[in-house]
Amino acid sequence: MRILSGIQPSGTMHLGNYLGAVRQWVAAQNPEAFFCVVDLHALTLEIEPSQLRTQTWDTLASLLAAGLDPAQCTLFIQSQVPFHTQMSWLLECVASYGELTRMTQFKEKSGRQEGYRVGLLTYPVLMAGDILLYSAQQVPVGDDQRQHLELTRDIAERFNNRYGEVFTIPVGVQPPAAARVMDLQEPSRKMSKSLSSPLGSIFLLDEPSAIEKKIKKAVTDTDGEVRYDWETKPGLSNLLEIFACITGETPAAVAERYERYGDLKSDLAAAVIAELTPVRERYDVLRADPAQLASIAAQGADKASQVAGERYRLAASAMGLI
Ligand code: ATP
Ligand code: LTN
Predict the structure, then answer these.
(1) Which residues is 37 bridged to in the sheet?
(2) Which of 223 and 66 is assigned the larger pLDDT?
(3) Active-site residues: which are they?
(4) Using N-to-C axis directions, what is the helix angle for 208-216 and 261-287, rounded to 10°?
(5) Which amino acids bring their CB within 6 angstroms of ligand 2?
(6) CA quadruple 316, 136, 125, 65: dihedral positive or negative?
């Protein structure tokens, strides 16, 4: 199965990234799967160059620690495969300004700053290029990327209708639970790398004591009944989703097993710690060997370029470029 997905090196990976996306990638990896650290996307918001560089290696090491294996899939850094920026230009000449201004993420992020970058507007086109270059059939992502996936499909269909059948139309895939993990302190907002309250996000590399503290302090409600209900119990429902994703149950089935919030929180903390501890331990070993990370990235970029180059040339030629 041809698969592609990406993650921005915009900060430390959190439980939302892990459960909503990366854990699915690990389960789906195969020789036809491509996963990338999308460093070009991280330039859409202000970031210190040295920080971007460090976080790119941190993110690559986190993906390996989470279980991606370069012997089973292709793992690469987006900017090391220049076809991504080239394809993005071709697709900018297929996408319309109106459809980009309608993207929810654009509206949210552009509203937060004066003089936002053009890249913030065109970012979903770069993402469409990432996906279409590899003829991905499936794109495992969290719920927040659904709209960008729809746009990718629209762009691909428009291209195929106008210039001939070059692109595979991809499908977005979400996990059955935890497709949108919410901030533990503000359950109306998604857990995020770039914006979050100090106790609101659990990070992949958090120590067990920090995980325990954040889950114990997670905002719930005062009525005391353990029930899966996003309308009236968003904080508790978020915890149930996280739990269900880890154990492979449904959130409602997890809720049935508990009568008290305290018991649920203690068991959830233990489950999250058990899930993340091996990842954190592997990360420390991997991050300590920069030469190995660079070599994995170089091999990945090489493999990715071969596939991406072929699709880029077909698209360019279909549009009339010589
Ligand atoms: P930023 O806050 O910088 O926008 P992010 O936390 O949204 O970053 P991305 O790198 O943009 O993370 O996303 C990587 C993957 O993680 C995507 O597939 C995205 O859908 C998924 N993801 C991000 N946040 C969550 C979340 N809270 N719950 C579930 N999945 C998520
Ligand atoms: N836009 C995504 C990251 C991303 C991506 C992709 C995801 C960039 N390119 C290709 C899937 C496929 C985000 O912000 N989460």
Answers:
(1) 7, 77
(2) 66
(3) 109, 190, 193
(4) 150
(5) 4-6, 8, 38, 41, 127, 130-131, 139, 141, 145, 148
(6) negative
Mean pLDDT of 29-48: 97
Model confidence at 69, pLDDT cuts 50, 70, 90, reads very high
Q: 228 Cβ partners below 8 Å, 6+ apart?
A: 236, 237, 240, 251, 252, 254, 255
Domains identified in the chain and CATH numbers? 3-173+289-318 (3.40.50.620), 208-284 (1.10.240.10)
What integer is the mean pLDDT of 183-189?
A: 95
Average of per-residue pLDDT across 200-213? 97
| Atom of ligand 1 minimally distant from the CA of 179 | 29
- Which ligand is nearest the CA of 15, by number? 1
pLDDT at 96: 98
- Pair of tokens at residue 319: 């549009």
- Ligand 1 pocket, CB under 6 A: 7-8, 10, 16-17, 20-21, 141-142, 144-145, 179-181, 190-194
pLDDT in tens, 85-108: 999 999 999 999 999 999 999 999
For residue 198, count other CB atoms closer than 10 A to its CB: 7
Interval 260-276 mean pLDDT? 98
Ligand nearest to the CA of 24: 1
Q: Which atom of ligand 1 is nearest to the CA of 45?
A: 3
Q: How far apart are CA 209 and CA 249, in angstroms?
A: 26
What pLDDT shows up at residue 198? 83
Ligand nearest to the CA of 141: 1
Atom of ligand 1 nearest to the CA of 194: 2
